[in-house]
């Protein structure tokens, strides 16, 4: 097939929704216009060619859950470093979630500040979450109309100090917020842990002088996740609000959410790489680098999550990249250390290593979890699939030629991660955003001129109430 291509990615094993096949990908103006066994250009002199021979070409990942702490926290992870790490990891779009920015994105004015901080600073495309917190119900409509991908709420204390921090939603805020979001046709993402249970167990542990990794894990048991999930589902039944559960850590909670789906509720669930590759026992060895909320679980829970993936009960995988300066992890008392894992750069490689290489889960299944399903759920209509009419967002991956991750390979502002020292049987060798090569393993670090990322505002009324996993 001939065409007026400006870029051909040729000879790779292309991961499409229904199969993996050796194909060429023809690109023009940043869009995929052909996928065929053999492509050539009628304008050879103007057509760039990238060889993917012997490698796999996946759709660029869509990470629906990252925390880039701008504006206001310039010493933490920001758009430039966070998106550079994502680009190196094969991710071509992300949705930034409010937590530690000052001010958090819970008003229209705060959204403008977030957009100003992101403009010209992101290596990959991005959308933004708004927040649901006590006192901002009147802001939800303006945030929705401004183009946020959805809203985020915490059912447990997110931590932090000061007057302008992101705060947990009390039951009234949660219920009334769901009612409003349902009217808007939006989606509410929930951190589902029961604050009364977690707060009481944490207080008991502290008063008893218990502060180890396992003491921390015991203060946030699976029952706290289950209680919050069931409560949120009940509110969704009453309001008709579409829900998305973030970073679910237990197969028991996945089952509860799957039951709600089978009863007809518009609900989706994500888990994270750290719940699929790390256990509570490893948490003790790794130290606070592996502290997160909910905490890491047992090997039985980890295996149960993989079984849920194989059964199609988990909709997608997101990093929950929640970084901090390293000194905030340096605490002997686990309750005092910052909770959050830096892992966005490693998501795709971890899932290929653990899912495809180790467990034989198809690359097309992993591509749906990493790319197509989050793009569909949150209205990134041109993202997540290698097909005609989609953005030419591609990750070229070498499988079989491994490497061991070291701190100097990380592009985070603070290069720490629980995956340092981990051997990977694969690596992302190139990342392409809308037809532009934004990462190549053989090139040096990208410069500011490579910050081609664009904001993808969600159009009002663009929710997908009939969502089903790809």
Topology:
Elements: E1 2-3, E2 7-15, E3 20-28, E4 31-36, E5 40-41, E6 48-51, E7 56-59, E8 61-66, H1 79-88, E9 91-96, H2 108-118, E10 125-128, E11 130-131, H3 140-146, E12 151-154, H4 171-184, E13 187-191, H5 195-207, H6 213-218, H7 222-239, E14 242-245, H8 251-262, E15 267-271, H9 273-277, H10 280-286, H11 299-310, E16 316-317, H12 347-357, H13 363-377, E17 394-404, E18 423-433, E19 436-440
Parallel strand pairs: 1-5, 2-6, 2-7, 8-9, 9-10, 11-12, 12-13, 13-14, 14-15, 15-16
Antiparallel strand pairs: 2-3, 3-4, 7-17, 17-18, 18-19
Helix pairs in contact: 4-7, 7-8
3D architecture notes:
With 470 residues, the chain is of the alpha/beta class. It is 30% helix and 21% strand. Strands 2, 3, 4, 6, 7, 17, 18 and 19 form an eight-stranded mixed beta sheet that branches. A six-stranded parallel beta sheet has the order 11-12-13-14-15-16. A three-stranded parallel beta sheet has the order 8-9-10. Helix 2 links the parallel strand 9 and strand 10. The longest helix is centred in the middle third of the chain and has 18 residues. The C terminus is likely disordered.
- Number of E strands: 19
Taken as a percent bin, the fraction of beta residues is 15-25%
The termini sit apart by 28 Å
Q: For the residues shown, what is the average pLDDT?
A: 93
Provide the low-confidence segments as ranges. 460-470
- Profile the largest sheet: 8 strands, mixed
């Amino acid at each position: 097939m001939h065409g007026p291509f400006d870029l051909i990615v040729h000879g790779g094993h292309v991961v499409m929704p229904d199969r993996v096949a050796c194909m060429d990908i023809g690109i023009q103006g940043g869009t995929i216009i052909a996928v065929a066994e053999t492509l050539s250009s009628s304008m050879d002199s103007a057509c760039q060619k990238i060889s993917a021979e012997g490698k796999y070409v996946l759709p660029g990942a869509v990470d629906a859950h990252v925390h880039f702490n701008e504006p206001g926290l310039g010493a933490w992870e920001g758009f430039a470093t966070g998106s550079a790490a994502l680009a190196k990891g094969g991710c071509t779009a992300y949705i930034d979630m409010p937590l530690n920015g000052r001010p958090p994105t819970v008003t229209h004015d705060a959204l403008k500040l977030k957009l100003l901080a992101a403009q010209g600073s992101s290596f990959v495309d991005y959308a933004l979450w708004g927040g649901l917190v006590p006192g901002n119900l009147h802001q939800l409509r303006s945030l929705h109309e401004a183009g946020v991908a959805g809203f985020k709420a915490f059912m447990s204390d997110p931590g932090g100090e000061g007057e302008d921090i992101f705060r947990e939603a009390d039951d009234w805020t949660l219920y009334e917020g769901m009612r409003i979001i349902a009217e808007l046709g939006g989606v509410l993402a929930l951190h589902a842990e029961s604050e009364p249970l977690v707060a009481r167990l944490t207080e008991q542990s502290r008063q008893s002088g218990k502060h180890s990794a396992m003491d921390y894990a015991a203060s946030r048991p699976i029952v706290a996740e289950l209680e919050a999930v069931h409560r949120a589902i009940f509110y969704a039944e009453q309001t008709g609000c579409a829900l998305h559960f973030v970073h679910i850590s237990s197969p028991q909670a996945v089952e509860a959410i799957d039951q709600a789906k089978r009863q007809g509720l518009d609900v989706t669930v994500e888990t994270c790489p750290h719940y699929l590759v790390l256990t509570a026992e490893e948490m003790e060895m790794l130290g606070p680098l592996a502290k997160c909320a909910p905490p890491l679980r047992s090997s039985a829970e980890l295996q149960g999550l993989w079984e849920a993936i194989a059964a199609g009960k988990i909709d997608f995988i997101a990093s929950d990249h929640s970084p901090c300066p390293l000194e905030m992890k340096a605490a002997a008392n686990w309750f005092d250390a910052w909770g959050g894992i830096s892992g966005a750069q490693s998501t795709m490689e971890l899932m290929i290593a653990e899912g495809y290489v180790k467990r034989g889960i198809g690359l097309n299944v992993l591509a749906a979890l990493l790319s197509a399903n989050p793009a569909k759920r949150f209205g990134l209509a041109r993202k997540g699939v290698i097909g005609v009419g989609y953005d030419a967002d591609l990750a070229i991956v070498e499988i079989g030629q491994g490497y061991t991750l070291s701190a100097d390979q990380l592009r985070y502002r603070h290069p720490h991660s629980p995956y340092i020292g981990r051997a990977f049987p694969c690596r992302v060798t190139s990342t392409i955003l809308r037809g532009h090569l934004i990462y190549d393993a053989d090139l040096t670090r990208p410069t500011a001129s490579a910050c081609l990322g664009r904001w993808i505002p969600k159009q009002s009324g663009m929710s997908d109430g009939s969502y089903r996993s790809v």
